Amino acid sequence: MINICNTDNKNNLNEIKIALEQCKLGNDALIIKNALKIFTLKEWEVFFKNKVNLSNDSRQFNLQNLLEEETWWSIIYDKKRDFAYTHSKTRQPLHNDNAWFPDPAEMVFLALEKQAGSGGESTIYLVDRILHDLEKEEKELLNDLQNTEVTITKDASGKYFNKTTIIRGNMIFWNYYRTIKNDSVIKSMCDTFFKYLENKESTPSVEVHRCETYDMLCFNDTRLLHGRLAFNAKNKGDRIMHQSMWHINE
User: Fold this and answer.
1) Structural domains in the chain?
2) pLDDT at 172 over 80
């Protein structure tokens, strides 16, 4: 489920800490309302380190698929770069943000500096729900996802990649476009799962919620898939989001 934390001042930070501790477990996602009114991005960094026991993973890939290091990665709508899902206004299918790392940061924070005038809702599909649905509806696909090893990579240099099953225990590693599909069995499995997820987006299994300007979406990236619905935008900067990745220390 998606939990909402409505604390909008610095006097109730313990409520946010408790909500984030629950979010770390991966059983739900969390939206902190007006997060960017409570703290600046730099102040949130300090809070994550000192109060929630997280350590930053600054690894990000740029549009050339080369590694760069930034604590916060700005994702700005720009029609000149709408060939990439990151900067486009089109629907973003369900995925993980760090599936291509063998040692991925678990926690992802998406802080909205500016939401689009309409659209841009977040979609959330929890692993526990995915397992339940597949067990009920697609047992053979579930078996394949749990037992067929794939390679997921985004790094142009070839240094970083993740060899894994897509579902591993109660964790998931999924990015359709970054999974190498040079084997007919793997391609068939990935195509089938991609279509399955697409169909599930219109069912109650996938939660949909629109974050507003200054809100922050938080989740354990290994324990759910997330995406985004299309949004309306005309000019560069009509939607601005800042993304940061963090490891759980304990």
Assistant:
1) 1-250 (3.60.130.10)
2) yes
Q: Is the pLDDT of residue 136 over 80?
A: yes
Query: What's the whole-number mean pLDDT along residues 124-139?
Result: 98
Q: Confirm if 230 and 80 have CB atoms less than 8 A apart.
A: no
pLDDT band at 179 (very low <50, low <70, confident <90, very high): very high
Q: In terms of residues, how long is the chain?
A: 250
Whole-number CA gyration radius for the chain: 18
The beta-carbon contacts of 151-158 under 8 Å, at least 24 apart in sequence, are 151/179, 151/180, 152/99, 152/100, 152/178, 152/179, 152/180, 153/100, 153/178, 153/180, 154/61, 154/65, 154/100, 154/178, 155/61, 155/65, 155/66, 155/67, 155/100, 156/64, 156/65, 156/66, 157/66, 157/67
